[in-house]
Write a structure and sequence with these properties.
Elements lengths: L2 E5 L7 E3 L2 E3 L1 E2 L4 E7 L5 E6 L4 E5 L4 E8 L7 E8 L2 E8 L2 E2 H5 L14 E7 L4 E6 L4 E6 L3 E5 L4 E6 L3 E5 L4 E6 L3 E5 L4 E5 L4 E5 L4 E5 L8 E5 L4 E5 L5 E7 L4 E3 L3 E3 L7 E6 L5 E7 L4 E5 L2
Parallel strand pairs: 6-10, 6-13, 7-12, 7-14, 13-15, 14-16, 15-17, 16-18, 17-19, 18-20, 19-21, 20-22, 21-23, 22-24, 23-29, 24-30, 25-29, 26-30
Antiparallel strand pairs: 1-9, 2-3, 4-5, 5-8, 8-12, 9-10, 10-11, 25-28, 27-28
Length: 297
Amino acid sequence: MRRLLHLLVPAALVAVVSGRAVGQETSANLFTWSGVVASGGTVGIRHFNGPIDVREGTGNKVEFSAERRSRRSTELSFEVQNDANGVTLCGVWRGRSACERERGGWSDDWDGGPPSSRVTVTLPKGVKLRASTGNGDVRVDRASNDVDISSGNGDVRITLTAGRVSANTGNGEVEISGATGPVHANTGNGRVYVTTSTGPVEANTGNGEIDVTMKALSSTSDMQFNTGNGSITVALPGAFNGEVDANTGNGEFRSDFEIRVIGRLNPHHVRGTIGTGGGQLIRMSTGSGRLELRKAN
């Protein structure tokens, strides 16, 4: 059964730890929450407006703080949804929860919108992270399980992860470095940069460069890399076997791999086989820009 606890300002903040309510408000502009989440559980963050900074700790407690950044922030609070899978921390503005917004519980009819606040989270080891903000940068420094990040407008930067990674922003750069599992990265406008020891990877941007490096592949799933405008560089394991379909409206295609071309030679569209073939298909597409297929070092 899910427990719903409202954290209202200026009342003291509340946390649930083994069924007991504890908490602290440290000042008029800063409030905190902490609680135990077991390894394998999930920590969720649903934020209206402002940046989110996450780093991995050493214990089994999630530690949450929010710093209000404007006078209008006095109407901003947070609630905690606690269930068997973990906890979700939800922004509340004028009685409406960001978690209800995600489920389509209300419409955007507020004057001026929710005010900005900076959220900082220390993540327990081994937990999954799902975090979103309507507007603001999101940064994750180390996570030893799956990570799912979303921003309506802002950069997303994720480093040193041990599970699957999904990163999405409506407008901003996406940078994922030191990953060890599959990655999905998407932005409406901005550069995408991904390095992972083990793919597959998919990357898309409406406008910007894509640069992806995979040292190994854990499956034979097809991969796609698309941009409306910009170059695409994909580095694959040197022993890769499969097919490539590369298309550019204005640019050239280069490859470190020997490719047996299928069909006619076309400077803007190449379809062919790498190695023994029969493996996964690599699709690369740009409206304008260079395409490069490299061997990962």
